[in-house]
């Protein structure tokens, strides 16, 4: 039995006042399938309230009118409990203005800002690809985050970084096929990764909860754990039994309007309390799939 996660009690969310589909940058998006504004806000508020009800804290950042995807707050930057924040350097130009507001918010709330490659001109890094789990910062790379960004994370912050190469276009961020549940359990969808990365998963996750195709593409791994509660956009009977067996209270929310943009509960929430001390290594250490 794993121990509860040390993080996931404090989140940044972006109120979806300007959420819409203006362009297509993932397989789930279509400009012909626009979110309903009233239902979108209702679903977002249900997620915010569920976090509070579970004992979590939510900070809210206003959405830029020129950044319709900014509601997916997980990608604004990697925030640590010690007060550091690594801003994302988005791959796609339509999302890069989000970093302007993110930088202002993080700085205004006492975070010390860093950028991959200096002023964001280096390799792309999107924080939806990064999770503290076990003895490492686990980082997905390929579709959005570039492999060179992992070097900057390791050496810049003196961290042990373990990379997993994402090879499935429908799982373009790590927060879609990988979800930490406690200190030893994580939901994983192995087909999201190349063969070498699949082989590495067993060394990263002692107790994997392997998702079926149907579970994975219902955004099941795009869930969050707040204390003893797991908040999910979908949960099969099989998984409910697993999570309740781990002592978790399962809360399932309808977040379908946000699925139109390719994200769900995890994408909408940026944890502000990742603990870096347990994964700190002098000089940094980068471990990539063989």
UniProtKB/TrEMBL annotation:
Example of a GO biological process term: L-arginine deiminase pathway
Signal peptide: none
GO MF terms held by the record: arginine deiminase activity
Pfam family, one: DDAH_eukar
Domain of life, per lineage: Bacteria
Keyword line: Hydrolase
Name the record gives this protein: N-dimethylarginine dimethylaminohydrolase
Highest classification ranks of the organism: Bacteria, Bacillati, Actinomycetota, Actinomycetes, Propionibacteriales
């Amino acid at each position: 039995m794993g121990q509860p996660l040390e993080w996931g009690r404090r989140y940044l969310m972006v109120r979806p006042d300007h959420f819409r589909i203006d362009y297509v940058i993932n397989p789930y998006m279509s400009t012909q399938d626009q979110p309903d504004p009233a239902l979108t806000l209702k679903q977002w508020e249900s997620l915010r309230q569920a976090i509070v009800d579970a004992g979590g804290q939510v900070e809210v950042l206003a959405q830029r009118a020129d950044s319709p995807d900014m509601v997916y707050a997980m990608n604004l930057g990697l925030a640590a409990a010690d007060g550091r924040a690594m801003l994302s350097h988005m791959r796609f130009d339509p999302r890069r203005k989000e970093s302007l507001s993110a930088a202002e918010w993080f700085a205004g709330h006492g975070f010390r800002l860093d950028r991959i490659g200096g002023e964001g001109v280096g390799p792309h890094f999107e924080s939806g690809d990064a999770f503290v789990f076990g003895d490492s910062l686990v980082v997905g790379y390929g579709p959005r985050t570039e492999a060179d960004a992992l070097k900057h994370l390791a050496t810049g912050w003196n961290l042990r970084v373990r990379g997993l190469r994402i090879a499935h276009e429908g799982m373009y961020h790590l927060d879609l096929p990988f979800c930490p549940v406690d200190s030893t359990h994580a939901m994983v969808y192995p087909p999201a990764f190349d063969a070498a990365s699949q082989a590495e998963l067993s060394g990263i996750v002692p107790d994997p909860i392997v998702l079926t195709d149907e579970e994975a593409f219902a955004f099941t791994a795009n869930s969050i754990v707040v204390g003893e509660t797991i908040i999910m956009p979908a949960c099969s009977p099989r998984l409910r039994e697993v999570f309740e067996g781990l002592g978790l209270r399962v809360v399932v929310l309808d977040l379908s309007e946000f699925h139109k943009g390719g994200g769900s509960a995890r994408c909408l929430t940026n944890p502000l309390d990742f603990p870096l001390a347990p994964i700190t290594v002098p000089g940094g250490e980068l471990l990539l799939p063989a």
